[in-house]
Give the backbone structure.
Amino acid sequence: QVQLVESGGGLVQAGGSLRLSCAASGRTFSNYYMGWFRQAPGKEREFVAVIDWSTASAAYADSVKGRFTISRDNAKNTVYLQMSSLKPEDTAVYSCALRYSTSTRYDYWGQGTQVTVSS
């Protein structure tokens, strides 16, 4: 079983920055992806970014490309989402999730952390 715990959310003004963290514990293996997703009120959950844990290769949604950076710390089993140039439309609950390379879906999710960007 894998547990994911996010932290780092909060209230920030437009143009500001925040760094989210997601600590993984429990039974993990080497071949998996860690993703960040977000869900704004009244909207569907959307993909934000993903990182290949083995290679650190990353991919981003077009809406955050150039503003957000996903990274990981192997020693701490933690994935980060550095968010810069934040916009009010980035306001959402951000969740991290884990998908094994052999799976087609994310099987483990964190509880989410609120990010609010004021204009």
